[in-house]
Specification:
alpha/beta, 10 strands, binds adenosine monophosphate, 290 residues, 7-stranded mixed sheet
């Protein structure tokens, strides 16, 4: 039975049979399909990925699913912002053709026992501070890719380690999908857009852009010849001095392999950080190209 909700600004599908029926009809027409997985509470960062997918595909499916397995026991799964009606409106505006919002029981029925995990690129950074997080992400994304079977899947550079992990997943498991990254969309003051920015109080919101400013300053100093370690130490101290409650990491990594870098070489590097501000854990990263 095909069940597509008709009164939303774009078709919303919740069950797998309906999803497969829509995808099969598009495939029969020879259409190219793009996928943008999200956890909802959508903002311009998410819609930029939909636009990117739409520029390269005939049809774009955005998924909205708050995936419990990528949250730690003391993290914000229960309170993660959810606003499906607003999400559907934003997706329609951005040019998506379908919203797929699967039910929790359909994704993880009783007896579910499989974990897909990627080694190497998930070491350190968010892999160290959020144990189990990337296994949750790679498992749910594998399921979404198998359900939709898109030609292209788009993920944001905001979650840079996640993007590289998913590229690795697709390459290692021969998944017939091109994994593409989209640039970070920022507020005017440099703060990377994030659904979790909604957790910030007005005072914290005023401090939040310091994360990006600090990364930019540290990157400029490195490119100017300062020792990488000194710049990283400075950045950690600066964030605490500016009002961040804790710094999970500020690290320089190879932009493609994510191997730690003690100095700038002639390959592209990435400066990545995660820091706590009030209830929010904010991520950011920037290119440091020699
Ligand atoms: P989320 O809903 O936070 O799981 O994010 C869904 C997708 O949107 C992921 O691929 C994120 O990397 C991406 N994303 C989130 N925020 C941004 C942003 N500010 N700019 C670009 N992509 C983003």
């Amino acid at each position: 039975m095909t069940s597509i909700t008709g009164d939303a600004p774009l078709p919303v599908v919740r069950d797998l049979d309906s999803l497969r029926a829509v995808v099969a009809a598009w495939r029969a027409q020879g259409l190219r399909i793009g996928l943008v997985p999200t956890m909802g509470a959508l903002h311009a960062g998410h819609t930029s990925l939909v636009a990117l997918a739409k520029a390269r595909c005939d049809r774009v499916i955005a998924t909205v699913f708050v995936n419990p397995t990528q949250f730690g026991p003391n993290e914000d799964f229960a309170s993660y912002p959810r606003d499906e009606a607003a999400d559907a409106a934003k997706l329609a505006d951005a040019g998506a053709d379908l919203m797929y919002a699967p039910q929790l029981e359909s994704m993880y029925p009783a007896g579910f026992s499989t974990v897909v995990s990627v080694a190497g690129v998930t070491d350190g950074l968010c892999g160290a501070t959020r144990p189990g997080h990337f296994a949750g992400v790679t498992t749910v994304v594998t399921k979404l890719l198998n359900r939709v079977q898109p030609d292209l899947a788009v993920f944001g550079e905001k979650d840079y380690q996640q993007l590289l992990t998913l590229k690795r997943l697709a390459a290692d498991l021969d998944l017939p999908v091109e994994v593409v990254g989209g640039p970070i969309v920022r507020e005017a003051d440099g703060l990377a857009m994030s659904s979790r920015n909604a957790y910030l109080t007005a005072g914290e919101r005023a401090v939040a852009p310091e994360l990006n400013r600090t990364l930019r300053r540290a990157a400029a100093d490195m490119l100017g010849g300062a020792e990488v370690d000194d710049c990283l130490d400075w950045a950690r101290g600066e964030l605490l001095a500016r009002g961040f409650a804790g710094v999970d990491y500020v690290e320089l990594r190879d932009a493609e392999t994510l191997e730690p870098l003690a100095e700038l070489g002639d390959r592209p590097a990435r400066l990545l950080a995660a820091a706590h501000l009030g209830r929010a854990r904010l991520l950011d990263n920037i290119a440091v190209d020699p």
